[in-house]
Amino acid sequence: QVQLVESGGGLVQAGGSLRLSCKASGRTFSSYAMGWFRQAPGKERSFVATISWSGDSTLYADSVKGRFTISRDNAKNTVYLQMNSLKPEDTAVYYCAVRQGGVSGLSRVYDHWGQGTQVTVSS
Question: How far apart are CA 33 and CA 118, in angstroms?
Fold first, then answer.
């Protein structure tokens, strides 16, 4: 019922920036949270950031606070992740996810997922 289309991943040098986008289609929601998760090779999927439908609630992983900013445009059903001051440790496949309800850092509560987009940060 929901399709998520991601864009913006790529290769960037340490200290650089990338902006990820994720557009949800196929359904209109009255209230839902959107978020980002990431998974590096050989590691578990981890929480990055999430934002409520209204935008008044956000959560960030400690590792990205002060560097990443999540935002959304409800008219476009799109969530963004602005990533600044990127570090090699940020290298991972980044996944967009959506859930009906409030913000959560638990991947298991999200109902729909994007295909993932690769972010590689070189030294």
Answer: 22
List, in sequence order, every beta strand (DSSP E) within the chain. Answer: 3-7, 10-13, 18-25, 33-39, 46-51, 58-60, 68-73, 78-83, 92-99, 112-113, 117-122
Q: Provide the pLDDT confidence category of residue 29 given band limits of 50, 70 and 90.
A: low
**3-class secondary-structure state, position 97:** strand
Give the closest residue to 67 by CA, choosing from 26, 22, 18. Answer: 18
pLDDT digit string (tens) for 56-102?
999 999 999 999 999 999 889 899 999 999 999 999 999 999 998 89
Distance, CA of 39 to CA of 8 (rounded, Å): 16
CA angle 72, 75, 76 (to 5 degrees): 70
What is the C-alpha to C-alpha distance for residues 112 and 35, in angstroms, rounded to an integer? 11
Cα–Cα distance for residue pair 59/67, rounded to 1 Å: 13
The position carrying tokens 């996810």 is 97
